[in-house]
Write a structure and sequence with these properties.
Shape: elongated
Number of strands: 0
Number of domains: 1
Largest sheet: none
Structural class: mainly alpha
Order of helices and strands: HHHHHHHHH
Low-confidence stretches: 1-11, 217-222
Radius of gyration: 22 Å
Mean pLDDT: 82
Strand content: under 5%
Length: about 220
């Protein structure tokens, strides 16, 4: 006869594996969609008598004009990448999932899947007079992401979901670091009303902060 305890542990591992695989797919799609905002310069339709074929200087100039798209792409790409890394690290502590955790994780994936849209808006409008609205939309979307992460954290780190060997120090580190997210992105949202570049700078600084936070976590979990 099979060991009921071992079977239960195998079932729990299968559930967490399915949740992580589904989440990985959503993160991968969201991060891939971001590259669609990098636009290829198009040759303008002009009378050939006045304008010759494209030159290297013309193409360089057109590519440089797209610099807001590059900034938005890098900021969003690295933000989603860091989110995925933290999500992976968090679920290394989880033994089993239940409906509340599945729902919380689904809301987080909804927030992640929205990121390409404000990224496209920032890329399009950051150099226009409407840039503060674009920055507000962008930072506001990350307020939603940060709140969603806190929701997953609250559900995932309950005693009934944690693995028996989950590191208490790592759990405390998660709890401390994620409480910073909502107010910090809220500050970026408020800053957008005054200066779009300040708002985007705060968002960029935040993914750098959480990238740095991964270093002690990775060491603690090893």
């Amino acid at each position: 006869m099979s060991d009921p305890t071992a079977q239960s542990a195998a079932d729990d591992e299968k559930q967490t594996g399915r949740l992580e695989a589904f989440s990985d797919g959503v993160f991968a799609i969201a991060i891939t969609l971001l590259v669609l905002e990098l636009k290829t310069p198009h040759i303008p339709v002009m009378p050939s008598a006045e304008h010759g074929p494209p030159t290297p200087a013309w193409l360089c100039g057109e590519l440089l004009k797209e610099w807001p798209s590059y900034i938005a792409f890098v900021t969003s790409f690295l933000s989603v990448l860091i989110m995925w890394m933290h999500h992976h690290a968090m679920f290394r502590l989880v033994r089993r999932v239940d409906p509340p955790l599945l729902l919380a994780n689904g809301i987080l994936l909804l927030a992640v899947s929205i990121v390409p849209f404000p990224t496209a808006v920032v890329a399009e409008y950051m150099t226009t007079p409407a840039n503060r609205t674009a920055a507000a939309l962008y930072s506001g979307s990350f307020v939603f992401v940060a709140l969603s992460f806190v929701g997953v954290l609250h559900r995932a780190l309950r005693p009934e979901c944690l693995a028996p060997d989950a590191d208490p120090n790592l759990i405390r580190s998660f709890r401390r670091s994620y409480l910073i997210g909502p107010p910090a992105y809220g500050l970026a949202l408020v800053a957008a009303a005054f200066n779009a570049w300040l708002s985007m700078g705060i968002c960029t600084a935040l993914w750098m902060f959480w990238a740095w936070m991964m270093l002690p976590r990775r060491t603690a979990a090893s």
